[in-house]
Amino acid sequence: MGNYRKKIIELFSLLLSLSGLSLTAQPGDRWKAGSAGELRDSVQTVYCFVETENNPWSVSEKASMLASLHESQQWLISQANRWKTPLYFYTNELVEGKNILFDSISSGTGSGKERVDWIRNVVKKAGYRNERQAFRKMSKKYHNKNIHVVVFARADGISYAMRYAKGMSKKKYFLEGLLVYQRYDNGAGMPVTSIIAHEILHIYGAWDLYTTYAQTREKQTKATELYPDDIMLRVGYDMEILKVDRLTAWLLGWNTQEEEIFEWFRPGDYSK
Predict the structure, then answer these.
(1) Range of the domain at 127
(2) How many domains does the chain have?
(3) Exposure string for 27-37, b = 16+ CB within 10 A, e = fewer
(4) Does residue 225 lie in a domain region?
(5) What is the pLDDT of residues 79-126, one digit of tens each?
(6) CA of 166: how far to CAs of 105, 220, 272, in Å?
(7) Which residues, at least 6 apart from 73, have a Cβ–Cβ distance to it below 8 Å?
(8) Radius of gyration of the chain (CA)
(9) 6, pLDDT greater than 60
(10) Does residue 211 belong to any structural domain of this protein?
(11) Does 6 fall in a domain?
(12) How far is CA 180 from the centre of its chain?
């Protein structure tokens, strides 16, 4: 019965794709154009570990990060279920059993000026010509067109998502993903599970609700009043108290009830 239901869901999604329709809240949004199409039904995660020669990953460190990835995906599934949205993940390594070596790994600072070519660089080291070709081959290999890449960096920094929008080069940026550091930029430990979930939500359409270079303190104050436990407002170690609230669910296409105030929260770096 479970396999039958899965086939029905996949067929329904295929028909929507062929018809040009979308289940997202804003199907015409220029930011809903990359490899991370719909956070529903079947979603493919491709991950890799990047390191430098003098700072390699240990086996236990990798196991810990993969456990956090699994926990974040299970949490996202539970949140999708709250909104009566089917969701399940398939997870595979970019190059099975092999870390990817770089001369250096730059730190994320939360400035909005971080490198956004990490996905392109890792897929090239994995043997693909560019992101567009990597997406085509991966979608054929995994029988899925909802694909994102999780890059685990053996370095300190503020993790961030790398998104694609209409008008950007498909060869350079189409394959969307996130860079997850081992620790914060000050060397402190971080709640990896909630950070992974937060960044995955970004590439599927969610906006930051806290003060950033592109989001105002006024909007954070209002979000704190309306959506105090939304994971796009704050992250933490206790996943039980975090949730995908009405606005974020609407951006993902999980919530079909639009509210007038939603668009007011659009950050400056998500221009239409």
Answers:
(1) 24-206
(2) 1
(3) eebebbbbbbb
(4) no
(5) 999 999 999 999 999 999 999 999 999 999 888 889 999 999 999 999
(6) 28, 28, 10
(7) 45, 89, 91
(8) 18
(9) no
(10) no
(11) no
(12) 10
